[in-house]
Design a protein that fits this description.
By secondary structure, the protein is mainly alpha-helical. It folds into 2 domains: 374 residues, no CATH class; 104 residues, no CATH class. The chain is built from 19 helices and 4 strands. A 4-stranded mixed beta sheet has the order 2-1-4-3, with helices on one face.
Length: 498
Amino acid sequence: MSALDDSLGQRRLLSPGVLFGGVYAIAFLTSKYLGLGAGYAIDDYHLVSQGNSGKFTSFFLSQGRYTNALLDWMLSASNLNMSNFSVVCLIATVIFSALFYTRSLRPVEIQGRFVLIGAAALLGAHSYYTEYVTFRQSALPMSVMFASMWMSIDFYRKALKSPNIGRNLAVALAFGLVAMGANQLAVCFLSIAVLYVHASNSTLTINGSDTGSGIRELILATLTAALAGLLLLGGNLLLSSLARLALGVSADSRAGVLPLSELQLRMDQLGALARILIFKDEPVASGFAKITALIGLFLLLVPRHISQIRPLLGALYLLAISFCIVLVPVAASTVWWPTPRTLIAFPFALVAIALIAARVNQGRNNWTAGGLLLLSAFLFSAHSNSMLLNQQRLNRWDMAQAQEIAFRIAERYPDHGTKIAVVGASWHHPLAPGIAQGDMNTSALSIGWAVDALFDETTGSPLDVRSAPELAARCEGRLSFPAPDSTQMIDGEVLVCL
């Protein structure tokens, strides 16, 4: 009896779902373990400087992130802030995201174990999510988002099988709205998950049926995913508006919707972004890593016989729909801000379609496709490590410069060195100008609302530091810091010419 129990336990341990979730978690931690250490993005400096004041509640509400606003209020009452949870919640993010992905995709043996390993590794190692890891304060809301999405898709799957469909759907929507209040990108993840749940059950994707029912099932899957997305966006808008109205908070520009007059410009921007996503180099990911993953995906989409043509065309259709879902938040926002962290659902879309294609191919091209996905995962893992190492370098350079400025001013103006105006700060340091993308790994010296927090955190003293571009003319003809004439006293404030 014990031998039978051991055999069953081994089978459970090596089940496709456990294998997928385990490889994903290993790839995530291997590529992003540096995020468990200390690090500062520009937001982190500001948050640490503000302490536990709860000043960010209104800011979160202005952007429609009511879950984060509630978390901030609770943490303020507990004399804590989000950065205090950077380690435990990064680990929680690994766990809950693995549960969400596994529950959404429900890997099966027929997809091929090597493909599952490569797909899971790619999903965990992809460097787009690493930008969120550089923002230590984001670990708490992102773990809440993934936990809520896991519960949402779990209740959604239950609703499809249970007679209590209404109750389960209501609970699924409620958890989805909690996830939206933590990060509106949840709409992309959940819409793709719903699309996958329905499409993977389509006769067109399973056995190549050319019946009208198979095509109708794919269309129904698309419409259901669109409906899920609209419900989440509508619910988020409603809850955000009510919360802002109740507390008298105005909406941030990023919470707005693109006007129709700017639609053509946005289409051109999306075309350029699509090329970057698919094959172009960028600071956080090489074109080679991207193309390697795509070749692995398209190998799974190559039909081996005539009966596979139609289902694999269905998978291509689903890939196009998933790609559009990923771009919705970036496309619809009034502010064009296509940073990697706004596109974190992209690898989920690739992996979801890879598993659908593998289901059709039933293990064919397994080793080649899985090997390419795994190679891409290794490359993205290196990119992720590079991003986090560069953040540590940037933090050292920023703090060293801020410390030197504070020291020189204290030496030159011993009685008037607490008010400082900085002019000419660059967004990068000369040694590594290519480590920044968007506002990731950008020097805090160049950010008006972050520079004061940088000096406070560096010196441990409550200095009054500001960026003063309006005083640039006062630096003309002067040598740059640390030259003696790079500083001057103006109306009780020390001007530093960088």
